[in-house]
Input
Amino acid sequence: MARSAGGGRLRPVARSLVDSLRHFLTPALWKQAKPARGPRRRPRWGTQPLVLVLLALTWACGDSCPERFETARAFAAVCLPKRRRPGQTVQGFRKALARLPMPVLRAVAAGVRRRLSALLSGSWTVFGFVPIGCDGTRLECPRAAELERRLGQAGKPGSAPAVWLTALVHLRLGVPWAWRWGKGTASERDHLRRLLSLLPAAALLVADAGYVGYDLIGTLLEREVCFLIRMSCQATFYREGAGRPSRFRDGGVYYWPPSKKKGGQQPPPLPLRLIRVRGRGRKHDVWLATNVRDRRRLSVAQASRLYRWRWENEGLFRTFKRTLAKVKLHSRTVRLVHREAEGAMLATQLLLGQGACALRPRAASGMEGSAACSPRRVLLAIRDELRAARPRPRRGFGRRLAAARRERRERTSAKVKRHWPQRTPHKPPKPPRLLTLGEEEKARIFPRKTRAA
Output
């Protein structure tokens, strides 16, 4: 095994995929995951081979699940040469996977998060923050009777059962940090509230207009979480000074929805900072709300760049759905759907984490041209290792990962080339309502100043 030097980064050359994975799946991680399974009589499928086969099933290439299972089973045997061989049939694997408690996979994911923050410490912080993006997507499931009964329909009448995924992603590295699963009708805002405890220190949460809401922003302020969220016409802000809203650029505002002011006990206004980023060409302006009110700590240019990096969330979903072919899950029971989805996201995290560590990024400079890994090229290198009977003699696996860089080219065409049927064309959100504080609002916000006057 190629050990990490110092405080840890992946050595330039990893001899094989097994050596590379040992930087993340350490012995201490397996010891923490073992108690989550509970006391059992020496099962045929141990925790390590079961998790390794689940990961390799996501990476392996094959036309059917039994074909991918044979590749994954052989990989687990190579990783654990001194352990008892795992089961031989995919049916036995599914039965063992259904009995695996979900806390085991969550404990593995928590250990991988700790390793990521240590191995990628050189590029973890940008502009004094850890930029974390949040977004969600929906994945279809088979039309099995159990799934239709328990998951229900998430879209149009007659649609297939689905699950909802909300993921936190490191925006500079493109590596997923944490995630949460739910039914296809789950609320991504509620998922975000449950994921707040997993945010790293000095995190800056970056999200799109789907996370506009007085209650959610109030929760972020209460938890003292720094955020940068795009606003839409659903938000109403009040400012002290006068002037045309079209000339507004950057300043302090109060988030106080009119619906919250009518009758009953009125909640307090939320003091925020509103930033307007001018669109280039035909692009619409982007209105961003943040609780970082100090301009020296977060400038308009830095906020614009951080929100532009939010596209890494969409890149993660593209990698998960298209590159790893998880646009539709394969399991036909709820227990297996949970474990397949959790294992697939864990495999995606390890795939992108290996690619990010192999590039050996230096101290974070926040530059737009910083190197990023290509998920497709990393996956091809992993699949070559899974198929190979022995390590490549001339070129190490680590060197192949270091060469798997993403292309950097200027976009000259539209992101959407054609309008797909049954899909609503995307419309950018309209700007928020920007009003001036009246005497009644000032009396409620500054009661002492009003009485003194």
